[in-house]
Amino acid sequence: xxxxxxxxxxxxxxxxxxxxxxxxxxxxxxxxxxxxxxxxxxxxxxxxxxxxxxxxxxxxxxxxxxxxxxxxxxxxxxxxxxxxxxxxxxxxxxxxxxxxxxxxxxxxxxxxxxxxxxxxxxxxxxxxxxxxxxxxxxxxxxxxxxxxxxxxxxxxxxxxxxxxxxxxxxxxxxxxxxxxxxxxxxxxxxxxxxxxxxxxxxxxxxxxxxxxxxxxxxxxxxxxxxxxxxxxxxxxxxxxxxxxxxxxxxxxxxxxxxxxxxxxxxxxxxxxxxxxxxxxxxxxxxxxxxxxxxxxxxxxxxxxxxxxxxxxxxxxxxxxxxxxxxxxxxxx
Length: 332
Fold this sequence. Notes:
The chain is α/β, with parallel strands linked by helices. The chain has two domains: 56-216 and 316-330, Rossmann fold; 220-313. It has ten helices and 13 strands. It has helices at 2-13, 20-23, 25-43, 69-82, 111-114, 116-125, 135-145, 251-260, 293-296, 320-330, and strands at 56-60, 87-91, 103-105, 129-131, 150-154, 166-172, 200-204, 214-225, 231-232, 241-246, 264-269, 289-292, 307-316. It is globular, with a radius of gyration of 20 Å.
């Protein structure tokens, strides 16, 4: 039901002049008004953003759905760690049902408790991670336990309670900003003008954007068994029938990546952050099951040797990664 509703909304958001956009226009107006009122409290000084004793880099987006934000966080953490920086990461922990917050996260944490993306970030980087609806509290939980040179806030562009040193917005270069309308008439969390105020715009794939954006794309790195030590490449699955499972904001991106490498897929799209049960993946055959890394962390407890996680990395074009790092380091 939720996936079907999401697909219908996306048809409105990414179709030029879809008639339903005008039906949803009054609701968009209410959303914009509520968002503007929340932000105005900070501009008028009625509420104050807290400045932490270390620099804070926010990586987020202004649209809902998958843009490649988490791979960008992982790339940035790894690059800073390689240069000797002590990096911590904070996140909302979306989808987590922990009874108390904030929560510390490791690569072995339960995604049902703390959210799938924080577990993925911790597993991919070894970076200390803390999550909670209040990112300021999550940050203080990290700072109380160790020394850090910089904190990276995953998905925090709209979290005004936390002051930040540098902002990175990630945009899906294939879908862009859709019809440029805000929720629910369009995919945007805030006005397109917001991109003019961030410090860097990373465009993931496609041809959207112009000027001084930083261009990158997601490329498959290797395919690893979810439960086991097996490692392969996508080329090893060429001409092989597989079940492709994607519970991310833009499942078609994952499916197209597999098809581009001649993997014969049976697609299974799930809603973003959806919990996964063993019964959902009982397809009644022996075909391999290829899934995103974000989904794989939710299947570790019941995975068998058919389950494979496709690991991807963010690869920048024409030196844009080095250019972005110079901008970030200049402000640290």
